[in-house]
Amino acid sequence: MFEDISKVLLITDMDGTFLPSSKIPGQASVAAVNDLQSRGGKFSIATGRAIQAAGQYFNSVSVNCPIIMCNGGMIYDLNNKKQIYDVFVPSYTREITAQILRDNPDVGCEVLTLDKVYVPQMTPMEAAHNVICKVDPVICDISEIPENWYKVLFAIEPEKMERLMNYVKSHNWTGVDFVRSSKEYYEILPTDISKGFALSKMREVCHMEDFTFVAMGDYNNDIEMLKAADVAICPSNAVDEVKEVCGVVLKESCEEDAAAAAVRYIYKKLDIL
To answer: Which residues of the chain form CATH 3.30.1240.10?
Structure first.
């Protein structure tokens, strides 16, 4: 499987995997990723974030392969600034979202399009998410948001999440998928779209069928990507469901430069000192 570093792609989730709680990439991880690329390896990210929220990191760490955005809704060529592949939630997601917000006024919400983040319902949790992602959202009524939504994110206090999830389950909405992406966030995605779907699509559209895909993740929305990869790695802080599907569970957490440990694992497999 590991034969040539030029045929290895390390693709990692951002929050909780590559990024520690400070949201500042660890120096050891940045150095390891740069070294991997200098030796001919490929590096990319797979995130639930929009381009606006992820873009702040590309000055401190480079990628040399297309990236997966919006939890699999988009494959984006950062160098040429264009989508390679994308898929949107159906138009009736607007009505579903409107009903959820109407019946749950304490739930924050944002809608991701190609070039903007729209917030139809602002709450302290949603405001905190905007700060974390360093985005300047457009606050407007849901009816004013243009078409072509990649995803909808709901933000709520962790202790209230079960109530929101039970509310959604009670309505049996079809044609979209609901995915919990962290203890505070619950998302609407297109049916059967995930980071794993996008990873498989990347192999095809980027002509990388002969590459070894090494994927890293820590939370439930990473599971399909980890299953689709040739090698699945997670940091020690990953949830149990993720650890169950990973062949490699690192001793290091996201706070301890887990990405650097993953690069060391790749080098060991390739007998690179």
So the answer is: 93-190
